[in-house]
Amino acid sequence: MSRGKSGRPTRPSGEAFWWALFSAGGVMAAIFVPAFILATGFLLPSGDPAAAAEGAQRLAALAGWWPVKLVLLGVITLSLFHCAHRIRHTLMDVGMRRLAGFLKLPCYGGALAGTVWLALVLWGI
Amino acid sequence: MAETKTITLELFRYHPETDSEPRFQSYEVPYDEDWVVLDAINWIKDYVDGSVTHRWSCRMGVCGSCGMMVNGEPKLTCAAFLKNYYPFPIKVEPLVNFPVERDLVVDMEGFMDKLQDVKPYIIRDDVNDTSEGEYLQTPAELAQYKQYSMCINCMLCYSACPVVGHEDDFLGPAALALGHRYNKDSRDQGQSERLEVMLRSEAMWGCTFVGECTVVCPKHVDPAGAIQQAKAMGAQEYFKRFVMPKGAGATKGAGA
Description:
heterodimer, A: mainly alpha, 0% strand, B: alpha+beta, Ubiquitin-like (UB roll), Fumarate Reductase Iron-sulfur Protein, Chain B, domain 2, 2 domains, 5-stranded mixed beta sheet, two-stranded antiparallel ribbon, disordered C terminus
């Protein structure tokens, strides 16, 4: 990394890219994920068991529709990258700052692996 | 006759020419509920120990010189009333995250460097002749940046920020908020130049939104909010440059 007179880096970095994924994922994780959990985990099972079972089947069928698959892929993938970025920065904050570059591999690599796995699962529905 | 009430001040002392390491020295100071910590330190310097070294000027929360750690919290000592601590002792230390020059005085050079990095002044490509009058601004355009212009460079936010403490490349709350203040000014055209600096690896991205800078700010500036907005602006600039390289995507001033 080239450094200027002050000793600070002189060139823009790719951190903006990871932050953009983190930021978008934050919106997903804060709004859509709790809404999904509320709907599928609490509201749906809280009524008549037979109606809940039917509702669950309908939801499963809905997840097989490709626009819904894309939405799920977007919401979950961005949430994974949000999580990865937060973990990386937390690790840097607790003393692993020198490994900032290396940490991208397990953190963002993990999120990418999760995305690939998710894509395969959605493909199979 | 009623006994005069006193309060104990424990001052951080360090004179590099004689002290091998810092120490604390206790002073008994007359207690007056209208006094602030700065009054007490001035009293010590005037009547007890003239070698106590500290910075101060206006005594009214405007100059930003008298920032110190008061019982572990970054405070303007001119706004920290003794009555909020009485009868317990008050420990006064220099602002943390800065090298100590002498007693309660810190070295501001690193901060001044960072401040200059963000070019905290209006940059114009085309300068109007004075005969054309002022650059007019609507109240809404003023509201975009006004709160960030209230910063008095007291550096309390640098002491409150854990990232400043362990990341030299991080420009810090005040400098970033001030850079953002000019980026949001409709008269300015230097956004691209400033973002060039702010987009560097940890310069702005080092901020993990702890938010303590906003909590301790004596002028109610919201540096944490400014940094989040600046990050969003920076991310847009990054993608613009990616799509349109070689400066074609450079963003001009907010109002241009």
